[in-house]
Amino acid sequence: MLDQNIAREVLQEAVRTGGDFAEIFVEDRIDNTMMMRSGRLETANTGRLHGAGVRVFSGTNAVYVHTNDTSREGLMACARQAAAAVKAGGKGCIVAPFKAWDAARPEEIQLLPTDVKAAVKAEKLRAAEAAARAVSPEVVQVVANYLDHVQNVCICNTEGVFVTDQRVRTRMSVAAVASNGTENQTGGDNPGASMGFEIFDALIDPEKVGENAAKQAITMLHAPVCPAGFMPVVIDNGFGGVIFHEACGHSLEATSVSIGVSEFAGKLGQQIASPCVTAIDDGTIVNQWGMLHVDDEGTPTQRTVLVENGILTNYMIDRLGSRRMGMPITGSSRRQSYAFAPTSRMRSTFIAPGKDNEAEMIATMGDGLYAKKMGGGSVNPATGEFNFAVNEGYLVKDGKIVHPVRGASLIGRGSEVLMKIDRVGSNLALAQGMCGSMSGSVPTDVGQPMIRVSGLTVGGR
Amino acid sequence: MDMNMFIDRVLEAAMAAGIDTAEVYCQTGENFRASAMDGEINQYQVSTSAGLSLRGTVAGKMGYSATQAFDEAAIRQLIEGVKESAALVEANEQDEIFAGDEAYPEIPKAESDLKNVTPEQKLALCLAMERAAKEADPRIWKVQRAMVMTGANTIRIKNSYGLDLSDSGSVCMAYAAPIAKEGDKTVTGGHMVAGSQFAALNAEAIGKKAVEETVCQLGGKSVPGGEYRIIMRNDAMQSLLSTFAGVFSAENAQQKMSLLDGKEGTVIASEAVTLMDDPLLPGGFGTQRFDSEGSASITKAIIDKGVLTTLLHNRKTARKQGVKSTANASRANYTAPVRVAPTNFFFKPGEKDLAGLMADVGNGLVVTDLAGLHSGANPTSGDFSLLAKGYTIEDGQRGHAVEQITVAGNFYEVLKAVVAVGSDLEFPGDSIGSPSVDIGTLKVSG
To answer: Residue B361: which residues within 8 A CB-CB, separation 6 or more?
Structure first.
């Protein structure tokens, strides 16, 4: 993808005005998306993303220039523009000899999606769509999406990194709408993995995905609105892990920690969560949606323990964050594409399994909310204020699940909610999502076993 | 190869390859972004980008393909992609390529001063904004972003009927986001100004306003749960309207994703509500002479004094309903298929400013910020349950700051419950805008 001689020349040019580090990221990516609605394949698109970015550091200041033109001239133009913006003075760093290697692991992928005919992919959507419609006549619309991508990258820098990698991901998502004529409710299911088309043998049963989406929509159509108030909340495994992702994860990214803005900045070694909470951000789980071989700065990924028995042990740290914080990088610097400068991001982030019994958790909670399926959320890392949606919730009275409720949301402050987790079950499961932040939208997993929070503000009507 | 030549080569090759009608949609741009922190420029990003997609019909069915590489191999890939995708799609209602309207509106446009602005001037603005924010109030602990973004982008549509349209625009945006601390309390806020003229960005004014929006939240507390009379300030109402704008799309209605299917001509909102879609608004962020299918832009009321007059249409949804396109065909970017989206979309302003609305309400809450709109609001059901900030209204006057509450309701019900629409229409760097709106009562959880 990138000639080493050209790379050396471009890096040298980039640090000409005194930069002390430079990096090139080249990307060539084929995206394939298909959408089926009302039982008909409406779109089947292939797109090719192609471009490169040159990044230069001078101390803790960073300049990033990107382009579609990956020819020698295009890259040199980027380097010149970046150098002009740096103007640090001095000679700039020396480009170290490259240690070239290939991080791709083709053995992890059985069937590259680019080798599968589109008609075969469409059949998976058809199966999911039909299964969703079959659930009930109240299902008035089903939208089934399929996507895969094969991303080839080359990342090199003035410290001698020169690595190529191939990232392959496949995902299916089904959204169902149930209606009684005057009201609509929705349900969804979105499994995915760092796998090729073999995902449909190993992991995804399209009919099950369709059914899950439709059943959730039907359940919510017949659910009364959730009451508002402050109450204990049990959050189930899988996508329930979004609570840690929002309440804590984003605030542990160097993006906010390194500039002192996060509510968890300066708290290493301190207790920030209840002692039953251990939380991990892991890029090494083979075939997992959020896995990496090397991150988008070319650093081999790793498993990072963030919180151990309630004590803050580490952050997620990229190269720039590492310079600001004086701490080692954690191989979790990511970007949506070459059009974004990379920064510290989550990979597969989860609360580790505990020892508590799931049935006991609900039986002893009194009156509260059981959040079976969570939706997305967001957080303000500076204040820790988070919010997220409950896609499928149930009202609990006197330790017994009474009936489903819709339209609930949960709000709070990260530092407070983590201390209020009083049960952690053992049934760990991960779920897939797309996480948006400064460096764009990247695939991440959230996860946890079932947990209980002793009190949360529940938004409802 | 040169972009003009590439476009012509693609269309020629498409015809030669047996594609019946074909259209190229091309987006090119130059973007700049920089941000200051602690008196230094800590982020600086520059890009030039170009992307092109080809769509074409084969045996009456439309296929799509896109590229960012512009060589001979890319031409082959585009044509194969279109043919493969057209062979696969099964939709009954097909997109079509449009030969064009007879005339296109001319919209008065001020020449942007952006091309005479140097990067140094942009960096100076970042630094000045940060300084202004820091000096405005001793409680400002840090400015987490003092950012300037500029962009110049061009769209071109050229098709096998001979239609050849292009439009370009420039945008200059400045944003400051301070953090204030008092005791153990931290609050964040921000202010953004955007327009086509760089000279209109005033560092002092943006910094000061951002600080005002931040420090006013200090001392904020929750309120007891219950029913409250709510005024959505213009920016909060704008974010709610943006989130639910899709319910006015004829495509969503026809696909049962919106409850407005078949509701044209009926009352769907209070008489106080008139909702406009105006692509001809001079200087608007959604101002355009033509839509993504090449239809000439037209101004229309979507809701007129409470009555739904029309949904937003592209050519496909209009044909399905036997009406004329409202010129709301939209492509989110060059790779995206043709969908439906509003242009400059806003509630028509009423008589009273925010203070006047507050005086009429007497006691209640002004909501100034809604968080979690991408997850806590469901555009299909209309339900929302959102983290909110604002302040109390006590005897018509501003009371104390409010935080850590949720407001919950349903967008369709909110439209019907609107008591009054304010006069303070704003477009916060966006094509969707709103004045402040008195939306009646909502359930609040605190």
So the answer is: B229, B231, B393, B396, B438
